[in-house]
Amino acid sequence: MTEEERAAILEHGPLVLFDGVCNLCNGSVRFLAPRDRTGLLRFAAIQSEAGQAVLLRHGMPLADWESFVFLEDGIVHRKSSACLRIICYMSGAWPALRVFRAVPRRVSDWVYDRVARNRYAWFGRHEHCLLPTEALRAKFID
Predict the structure, then answer these.
(1) Total domains, the chain
(2) Residue 89 burial by CB count (10 A; 0-12/13-18/19+): exposed, middle or buried?
(3) Containing domain of residue 56, as a range?
(4) In the beta sheet, which residues pair with residue 16?
(5) Has residue 140 been placed in a domain?
(6) DSSP code of residue 92
(7) How far separated are the first and last CA of the chain, in Å rounded?
(8) How far apart, in whole angstroms, are the C-alpha atoms of residue 52 and residue 71?
(9) Is residue 135 a part of any domain in this protein?
(10) pLDDT tens-place string over residues 98-129
(11) Residue 19, SS3?
């Protein structure tokens, strides 16, 4: 990836920021990457230099790791909104889950928040951000 391509992704996306020490979040990235029908999704740990730069640029707390963050067309989406936008990039029947956009955001974010607050207890965590596998490395910004 050239420096211009990297800069464009950091500015406009599509870029998925995830908690790099969370087993659930890392598993989600490993699930999403091979199902990206567009080949456009890129990933960065929210704790990484790239992740922190995106948060800073959009006026978001630098320590808010309770949420997936999805940068698309220069707009930041969080929580359930981020998840529902990301599935549109997936292959197979996954995009059909867009029907959940009809659920009021306060309800879907409430469910999202319950999982986010308990993810370490339910799925575990690592002390350091995990390195991507060789197959995933090309999809990572950092």
Answers:
(1) 1
(2) buried
(3) 3-130
(4) 43, 70
(5) no
(6) T
(7) 11
(8) 13
(9) no
(10) 888 899 999 999 999 999 999 989 988 887 77
(11) coil
DSSP for 25-85, written as a single string: HHHHHHHHGGGBSSS--EEEETTSHHHHHHHHHTT--TT--SS-EEEETTEEEEHHHHHHH
Position 40 confidence tier, pLDDT thresholds 50, 70, 90: very high
**In-domain check, residue 141:** no
Length of the chain (residues): 142
Query: How far is it, in rounded angstroms, from Cα 92 to Cα 80?
Result: 20
80 touches 109 (CB < 8 A): yes
What lies within 8 Å, CB to CB, of 35 at 6+ separation is 90, 91, 92, 94
Q: Is 70 within the bounds of a domain?
A: yes
Residues 6+ apart with CB under 8 A from 107: none
